[in-house]
């Protein structure tokens, strides 16, 4: 489950590779953290339940959420989708993607994004 309150963070630097960022450094709860694209993880399913970082479709800011599900999309070549849950209404879903329910949460408290747009914390034990 997601913590009761969103962590406080500020983006410090981002290293851009084509076509998306592969590394984002930020100050999270007073400590520097490095977040790497889930696309770089051999098995993103091992990160289910972990805090991750992604860009909100509503505000375009980076937000912290909980990774709930990884979905391979059959009809799109090389696409894997991550389902993310937020505490606050920062998304555009309630846990449903393409007409199928993957998890249950409040309206607008979930988002589904390609894994190259989702970042995991490299040093998660310090969060």
Q: What is the CATH class designation?
A: Mainly Beta
Number of strands: 10
The CATH superfamily is identified as CAP Gly-rich-like domain
Oligomer: single chain
Contiguous uncertain segments of 5+ residues: 1-20
Strand order in the sheet with the most strands? 1-2-3-10-4-5-6-9
Order of helices and strands: EEEEEEEEEE
Q: What's the shape?
A: globular
At CATH level 3, the topology is SH3 type barrels
Mean pLDDT: 76
The portion of residues assigned to helices is under 10%
Based on helices, strands and strand pairing, what is the structural class? mainly beta
* Main pleated-sheet profile: 8 strands, antiparallel
Proportion in β-strands: over 45%
* End-to-end C-alpha gap: 15 Å
CATH architecture: Roll
Pfam family, one: CAP_GLY
Domain CAP-Gly: 82-114
InterPro entries: CAP-Gly_dom_sf, CAP-Gly_domain
Protein name: CAP-Gly domain-containing protein
């Amino acid at each position: 489950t997601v913590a009761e309150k969103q962590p406080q963070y500020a983006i410090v630097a981002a290293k851009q590779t084509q076509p998306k960022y592969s590394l984002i450094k930020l100050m999270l709860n007073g400590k520097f953290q490095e977040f790497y694209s889930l696309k770089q993880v051999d098995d993103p399913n091992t990160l289910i339940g972990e805090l991750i970082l992604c860009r909100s479709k509503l505000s375009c800011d980076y937000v912290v959420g909980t990774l709930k599900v990884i979905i391979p999309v059959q009809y799109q070549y090389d696409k894997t989708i991550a389902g993310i849950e937020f505490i606050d209404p920062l998304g555009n879903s309630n846990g449903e993607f393409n007409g199928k329910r993957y998890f249950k949460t409040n309206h607008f408290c979930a988002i589904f994004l390609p894994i190259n747009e989702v970042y995991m914390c490299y040093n998660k034990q310090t969060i």
